[in-house]
Predict the 3D structure of the following.
Amino acid sequence: MKYLIICFIMGIGAAGFGQTSSVDLVKKVPGFSHPESVIFDKEQQVFYVSNMADRKEKDGFISKVSATGNILDTLWVTGLNDPKGLLIRNDRLFVTDVTFLVEMDRRTGKILKRIPIEHAESLNDITADEEGNLYISDLAGNSIYKMNLSGNI
C-alpha cells in the first residue's frame, strides 16, 4: 500500500511538472575538487561541502561556504581520504570517509575521533533517527550500519 501511494504521488508530480522541468544555476562556486555532499548548518549559517579530491591518500577535504555562496575556507578540514556523507548532530559534524566515521567539532573543524567501521568497504551516506542513532550506508559492502548514542556499532 505504501508503494502504491508513493507511485500515485510521483505520478501526480510528474503530470504536474512534465518531463521538461529544469533547475536554474543560481551561483557556481569554484574551488571544489569532486564535491560529493553538502549540508547546511542553520546555527552557523554556513554550508559544509565534502570533497573527494583526486583519490590520493589524505587529499580529501571539507570546504566551508557562506549562506550566500562565498567560500570561507576551501580547505577547512583536511587529511581525509574520500569524504562523502555529512551529518550535523548537536555541536558535531560527522563525515563518512571510506571505512571510518570521522567526528569533528562543527565550529572549529578539529577532528575529534576517527571511528573505524569493522568490515566496511566504502561508506557513503549518513543519517540519524529521532533517538540519536546514526545509520551509515556502505555502498560496496551492501550494508547499513547503526551506531547508538554510546558509540556501539
In short: The helical segments are 2-17.
